[in-house]
């Protein structure tokens, strides 16, 4: 193993080129001046070439993501601030800098004291054709290799969208394919994977349904803030979607730019990414997911007592007060629990056709589970938030849910589908904050 001092190696390279005089030292004797290494390098390059250099920083946030997930955030952010301050703010010997990363660069972050920042994300039009290879560039590369596999390459690797520029390709995948000639997935894990996994595992239920939609090739309509604030990653649902978009796992279409957010339809980028999605992202949901599987087992077994216990456990351990809300006028906790139950039962797709908010009878039911085999039970679910002005307790709220099912004749569509009404189980869900009550009727 080499014991060569890296500082000595750097100085040796600079002297041999030569950028340093024989008696000059690139590094000062005191360690604190190491923060100025980039500035000093720019000075020596300028002195030799008489041209101000350009500073290129790729994946600037990789050490920050690693520090955040490994628990040494404070030390790393202090170090990076020192380095970037000396490299960009206190440096007169560079012309411009290009910085890339997953987290959007913002003025209220690591670069708060820098001027003249121009920030472009994957939804911006500026430099849209520079984020990857264009289709013409891929065609030219294959032509140089005398390859006639463009259709197959497009089918597997095409799909990235930057701004309005479509049909963009990941350079890493294309370069590997050109070199190896195999149509396989070359997608590699990124430094943000662990962070994405941490977010999913802490709040898995509601998001699992949307991830399953993506896995089925469907689009999900989202409002996304492209600014990722590290301090609030744990409890911020936006962080998951912003990370998925910025690292390329999903693409955004029909983008509408608002003041602080974008509204768009997102879907998995391409077949190569879908393969990674199945093995990496979806697998993140399985850690600590046993209580959710027990809920499904209790549902199918009509064990209402266990359903109440498991749902209460999920509410207490996985939900934020601001998720479920408290005042009906201020939030829509009914919608939140609706999404929660969809996330819990989505694993039953191979046994049930799960339908949400469909017209039936004289209204729209919340959720219905149509069995794919006629000898199985069907389920019809209605969600209600406790109305303190009309109801004394959650028991009365559940009864209100059952009355709505009967009065609106929600079973109509299930019966029309050929399901015996005696096998249609009605479930009433009542909520207030994190308190939950579930009852069942035939």
Automatic annotation (TrEMBL):
Domain AAA-ATPase-like: from-to ranges: 34-111
Pfam family, one: PDDEXK_9
Alphabetized PANTHER family for the sequence: AAA-ATPASE-LIKE DOMAIN-CONTAINING PROTEIN, CONSERVED PROTEIN, WITH A WEAK D-GALACTARATE DEHYDRATASE/ALTRONATE HYDROLASE DOMAIN
Name under which the protein is recorded: AAA-ATPase-like domain-containing protein
Organism: Roseburia inulinivorans
């Amino acid at each position: 193993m080499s014991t060569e001092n890296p500082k000595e190696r750097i100085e040796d390279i600079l002297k041999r080129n030569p950028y340093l005089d024989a008696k000059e030292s690139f590094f000062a004797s005191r360690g604190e001046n190491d923060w100025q290494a980039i500035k000093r390098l720019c000075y020596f390059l300028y002195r030799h070439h008489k041209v101000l250099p350009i500073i290129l920083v790729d994946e600037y946030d990789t050490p920050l993501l690693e520090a955040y997930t490994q628990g040494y955030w404070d030390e790393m952010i202090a170090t990076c601030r020192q380095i970037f301050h000396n490299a960009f703010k206190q440096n007169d010997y560079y012309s411009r800098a290009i910085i890339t990363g997953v987290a959007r660069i913002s003025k209220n972050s690591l670069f708060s004291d820098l001027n003249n920042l121009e920030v472009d994300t994957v939804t911006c039009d500026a430099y849209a054709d520079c984020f990857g290879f264009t289709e013409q560039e891929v065609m030219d590369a294959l032509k140089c290799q005398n390859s006639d596999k463009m259709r197959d390459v497009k089918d597997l690797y095409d799909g990235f969208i930057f701004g309005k520029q479509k049909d963009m390709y990941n350079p890493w995948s294309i370069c590997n394919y050109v070199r190896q000639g195999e149509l396989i997935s070359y997608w590699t894990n990124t430094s943000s994977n662990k962070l994405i996994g941490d977010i999913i595992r802490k709040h898995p239920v509601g998001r699992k349904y949307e991830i399953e939609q993506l896995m089925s090739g469907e689009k999900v309509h989202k409002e996304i803030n492209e600014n990722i604030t590290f301090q609030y990653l744990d409890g911020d649902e936006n962080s998951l979607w912003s990370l998925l978009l910025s690292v390329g796992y999903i693409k955004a279409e029909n983008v509408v730019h608002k003041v602080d957010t974008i509204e768009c339809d997102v879907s998995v980028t391409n077949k190569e990414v879908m393969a990674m999605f199945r093995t990496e992202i979806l697998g993140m949901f399985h850690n600590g997911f046993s209580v959710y599987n027990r809920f499904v087992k209790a549902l199918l077994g009509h064990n209402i007592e266990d359903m109440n216990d498991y749902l209460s456990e999920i509410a207490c351990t996985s939900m934020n007060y601001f998720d479920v809300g408290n005042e009906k006028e201020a939030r829509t906790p009914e919608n939140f629990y609706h999404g929660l139950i969809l996330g819990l039962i989505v694993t039953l797709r191979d046994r049930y056709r799960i339908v949400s908010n469909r017209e039936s009878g004289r209204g729209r039911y919340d959720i219905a589970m149509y069995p794919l085999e006629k000898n199985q039970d069907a389920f019809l679910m209605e969600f209600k938030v406790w109305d303190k002005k009309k109801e004394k307790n959650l028991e009365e709220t559940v009864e209100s849910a059952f009355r709505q099912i009967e009065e609106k004749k929600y079973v109509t569509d299930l019966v029309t589908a050929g399901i015996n009404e005696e096998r249609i189980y009605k479930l009433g869900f009542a909520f207030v904050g994190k308190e939950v009550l579930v009852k069942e009727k035939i």
